[in-house]
Fold:
Amino acid sequence: MHWMLDMNFREDESRIRKLQGPLMFNVMRKIAMALFKQDASKSASMARKKKMAGLDDDYRSTLLESGIKMR
Structure:
C-alpha cells in the first residue's frame, strides 16, 4: 500500500509535517485510493483516474457518490 500511495500521490515528497496534518492527509489519500480502486466504470490506471477526477466534474461526483453507502 505504501508503494501505491507514494507512486500515485507522491506521499514521500509531502512537506506536510505539523500537528495532525500528516495523519489527516494520509487518511484522505487512502480514501481516494479506495474510491479509485472501487470504480469499475473506467478501465484506466489509478493515475489516469486521478487526472480524470481532477478535470471532469461529473466523474468526480460519480466517484464521491459511489463512496457514500446508504444504510
In short: Residues 2-67 form one domain. The helical segments are 2-9, 21-38, 46-55, 57-67.
